[in-house]
Each structure stands twice: as C-alpha cells, then as structure tokens.
Amino acid sequence: MRPILMKGHERPLTFLKYNRDGDLLFSCAKDHNPTVWFADNGERLGTYRGHNGAVWCCDVSKDSGRLITGSADQTAMLWNVQTGQQLFTFNFDSPARSVDFAVGDKLAVITTDPFMELPSAIHVKRIAKDPSEQTGESVLLIKGPQGRINRAIWGPLNRTIISAGEDAIIRVWDSETGKLLKESDKESGHKKTVTSLAKSADGSHFLTGSLDKSARLWDTRTLTLIKTYVTERPVNAVAMSPLLDHVVLGGGQDASAVTTTDHRAGKFEAKFYDKILQEEIGGVKGHFGPINALAFNPDGKSFSSGGEDGYVRLHHFDPDYFNIKI
Amino acid sequence: MAHQGEPAKLRWGELEEDDGEDLDFLLPPRQVIGPDENGIKKVIEYKFDDDGNKVKITTTTRTRKLANARLSKRAVERRSWPKFGDAVHEDVGSRLTMVSTEEILLERPKPLGSKTEEPKTAGDPLAQFQKGAVLMVCRTCGKKGDHWTSRCPYKDLAPPSEGFVDKPAASDGAAAAAGATKGAYVPPGMRAGAERTTGSDMRRRNDENSVRVTNLSEDTREPDLLELFRPFGPVSRVYVAIDQKTGMSRGFGFVNFVSREDAQRAINKLNGYGYDNLILRVEWATPRAN
Questions:
Q1: Hey, are the CB atoms on A1 and B103 less than 8 Å from each other?
Q2: Which of A52, A290, B225, B250 meets the CB 3.0–4.6 Å disulfide criterion with A252?
Q3: What pTM does this model have?
Q4: Closest among A183, A140, A186, A131 to A159, alpha carbons compared
Q5: What is the pLDDT of residue A293?
Q6: How open is the CA angle A83-A311-A111, to the nearest 5 degrees?
Q7: DSSP B72-103
Q8: What is the pLDDT of residue A261?
Q9: Out of B83, B106, B247, closest to residue A282 by CB
Q10: Where, by residue number, does the polypeptide cross the bilayer (chain B) (predicted)?
C-alpha cells in the first residue's frame, strides 16, 4: 500500500479519531490546532483555532456535528465540526487530558491532570443540544486515583466509566454515583503507565496499551483479562480492527532517545497482532519517531497513525490484507 | 466573421499569426449524445490536425456504476463543505497531503509456520522429522533424514571437511609464496628468506586457537557461548558480533581456547550441533585475507 502522508501539524501528534461514517479524520497534536481531514484522500478540510496549548484528545458526536477537544491550556472546548466555530469552553484548574462523548452525545467525560497540588479528576459534563444553553457545571466529579489519568471512556449504556492512567490500574466507576465498582488486580494487570485505551466496535471488550511493553484485552463488564499481546517496545497507542480480529499496537522507544540511535533500533512500526491467537501478523513501517496515535476507520479498510514526527499516515489496505492467514 | 464563409481558403500567413484557439470558432460545435440507459455517451468534436485539415473525432464512452461505493448521504454532503480555519488560505505549493513514494508492505515477522514448529522441535526433534525428513541432511555423508551431522556413523570414513583441516599459519604463508607465479607481486615480508617474525607473531596472538562460530541465533550472547564452550577446556576470549546500529547479534562469534586440543575437540563436537533451533557451524577462524 502507498500511505497518504499528511503534514498539517508542526508538533508531535497526540490523538486521532474518525467520525462514525468514516469520512472525516480528526487529528490532535501538541501544536494548538486540532485539524479535520477527509479520510479518503487526506485533503485538509479545516482547523479548529482557539486553544492555547497542546491538544491531548478529541471526540466527535455521532452525527458529526460537534467536536470536543481537551487541551493543556486547562480547557476543553466544544466546536461546530462544519465551520470550526467555538461553541463553548469548559474551564478547569489543570490540563484536560482525555475527553469522550457518551452514547447519545448528551454527556461527556473529561479527565484533568494532577497539577499544582490538585489531584487528577474525572468530570462528567452535560452537553446541551443548543449550544446557547450549555453550562460548565459538572454532573459528577470523581477523584481518587493517584497520578495522571490518561484515558477515561464510557462503558455500556453509559452506566460506567472506565479509566486508566499512570498508576497502571484500570478502574470501573459508576457513572451516576461515582462509586468505584471494579479494579484490575495487580497480578494480571499492567506493570507500568497505561497510555491508551480503545473500545471494540460493539463495546463488549477494550484494549489497553502500556509502557510495560504489552497490550491487554479486557472484558468490559467483568473487567477480566482476556488476552495479552507482548511486544518489544513501549506501547503508546492501540487500535482494534472493527472488521477483522486484528489489533494494532504503536509505540517505540522513548522520544528523547530517538536521535541517539539508529531508526531501526527505535521500532517505530505499527504492529498487527491476531486478536485471538495473540500472534504477530506483521508490521507497517514509515514513521521517523514513536507512534503516539492510532485509529481504525469504522469500515475496517483503512487505518491511520500519528507520530512524534508530526506526520499522520493514512493507510488504505491492499486487498491481500483481508485474507492474511497465520 | 468574413472567414467563416470560406474556411478552406485560409492563407498560411494568417494561420501562423493566430494559431491555436482562435481558429476554433471555424469548427462546428461540439456535440454530446447521451448518456443513454446503458450509460453510453457519444461526444463528437471537430479540430484541425497539424496540416490544417478539419478532423471529426467521435468518442464513445460507457459509464458503469460501481456496486460497492456506498456512502452515507451526509458524508456526501460533507464532501462539499467549504474549508475553514487555516485550510482556507492554504498555499497551492504547501503540499500538506502527499502520497508516499515508497510502497509500504505489511511485513510478516517470520516466514510462515516457523513459529509454530518451534515447540515441537524442541520436544522431540527426531520424531518430528521422521515424517517430513527432508530437513535433516547429514553434511558429512549426505544422507537425508537418518541422522544429524554430528552423529554421522561415517564421520571417520569421510574426508574431513575444510572446517576440520588445521592450516598452520606459517606453512600456509610459505606455500602461498612458493606457489605464486613469477610475475605476481609478492610483498617483501612474504618473500622467501624474509624475516617475518613480527607479522606472524601478531597474528598468532590474536588468532591462536580461535574458533569461529556461525549461524548463531539472534538471542545468543557472550555468556551463552561461554557456557557452551567451557566444558571443552579453558577459554581465553569469547566474542559475539553485535550490529552497532540495532544492538542485535549478527549471528556469528569467536571463541579462543587456551589449548589447541580443546579447540579441536570443541569443533568436532559442536560443528553441526543444534543450538536454539539453528545448526551451528564451528570451524577454525581463518585469518583475514589482508
């Protein structure tokens, strides 16, 4: 395959997200402008101007009308996807790390980093249909986990919130009361910071990637460990194919060590694993730095990766990808 | 307008003057017929060829609908959204989106099947190969699927392979000098009668009783080699070649023994020995050509 290279960001990529129809690709980077691209040919549609810090995460509503972004400038912003217009700004006292719309797009979960003696927190905000009625009030505020929370997502039927972060423990919270329901145990869980978390297409299981050089597959309801994928590099990003039983892990050596070693030693490929057999299928090379973000097109026929090198690489699979046998 | 009446009588001078599109108004208009229900469209055009003759061109095309191109209505709508933000004032030359010039393949980690075979081979190597015994070829007698090279019953009968032959450095050099043809250049140090104490001494120090081990697995490190070779006698040096860029083993190494007999025994025993699923090749380290 010949990937499409998109060089719209001047700083390392942090997050990638497709909309539900799979025709738009949203990219976040440490420069301050989240960008939207056409997912078929990689043409830039627009940028969302207004943040004043690195943008860590974004999510798009199901109807592709609203975009929410979380940034290190201690805000999360709501945007009109079509025009790039700012609709609302949620102000926090610490950087916003992760954002996720609930099913139905009426709620959003936003996590904030520990900062200036403030602990990390998970905020649940109500998203109004009419942006003029939007308020910044939190419906729920969860505190407790030590260290940064790198990712928080909604569980099935919005009943739970799943969070993971620096303390390597995956937690399931009740999204109404804020009570801690489940915790991954130390034995089977990750040993180092969990960097990324991705739900399967049906939400029945999710994948976490960690700096302990492994990715783990968990059952969403029971939080039991299903599979472990072991690799030889820290995992910064994970994605699951909605079409085939494949998972993709991206990562590479620490960004600070990249210039001191040969690029072959960095292991910057996106690695494909068989979801069930846990065996490596192959690697896709190309980035000149660690991969920070991965996303699968909802049709499963293309995926994109964003790297520390500032490039988004959009890969449309060759036909023979769809009948790979182990 | 005067031209239109007599287009055939154009003078070449005029042609030269206004070549190109200016003449197009002389031609009958472009006709488009279709597309009909089969998607067939006919386009009739007229143009002047190089000699100034009028040519009629009929292009027939058939448009076929692709069955799988399924796009949601809203996705199609989004296609025509105007650009916004920084994308509005994009330079034509900025080329933010490029197609990679390099063909990227999904690289398979290992050849098919090799991974699944590993545990089986480790468990019972002979039983595994009894069925598809082609893989086991004795390099001494050439028999297939009967025994490993190191267990060859005809080992003593067969002429020793070049790996087993001990070539003393001094006699080798002399032979080379003697065998050299008349005209060929022989360096002073190699000429008959020359003192070559320093050269051979230096080489002796580095290469004495040095055994080269090749076809090592990538995971093999120096301590592993030491463990493998120490039973044969005292070892003075172990070295595994490491690729400086990747930090991976390059698949060969050297072991220096204190005594030559130990080295020979190690070669006899370990050449063809299965180690980490690879068959080791152990031989005397031949000095470099230069």
A1: yes
A2: A290
A3: 0.63
A4: A140
A5: 94
A6: 65
A7: -HHHHHHHTPPPBGGGTT--GGG--EEE-SSP
A8: 67
A9: B106
A10: none
Strand partners, A271: A249, A283
Residue of A nearest to B248 (CA): A265
Among A6-15, A24-33, A185-194, B104-113, which is the least confidently predicted range? B104-113
B66 touches chain A (CB under 8 A): no
Q: Say which residue, A216 or B189, is predicted with more confidence.
A: A216
A158/B202: higher pLDDT: A158
Strands (E), B176-262: 210-214, 235-242, 249-257
For A105-155, the pLDDT digits (tens) are 999 999 999 988 889 999 999 999 888 898 988 999 999 888 899 999 999
Taking CA atoms, what residue in A is nearest to B245? A262
What six digits make up the tokens of B147? Answer: 């025994």
Q: Compute the nearest-CA separation of A83 from chain B (Å).
A: 6
Indicate the residue of B79, B84, B107 with minimum beta-carbon distance to A46.
B84
Q: What is the DSSP letter of B222?
A: H
Integer Cα distance of A89 and A275 in angstroms: 39
Asked if residue A150 lies in contact with residue A166, where contact means CB atoms within 8 angstroms, the answer is yes
B246 touches chain A (CB under 8 A): yes
Higher pLDDT, B186 or A178: A178
Mean of pLDDT over chain A: 91
Closest of B246, B255, B247 to residue B280, by C-alpha = B255
Residues of A within 8 A of B115 (CB-CB) are 279
Cβ-proximal residues to B10 (8 Å cutoff; 6+ apart), any chain: B3, B52
B86–A315: do the CB atoms touch at under 8 Å?
A: no
DSSP symbol at A145: -
CA gap B1, B132 in Å, rounded: 89
Q: Contact A286/B74, CB-based, under 8 Å?
A: no
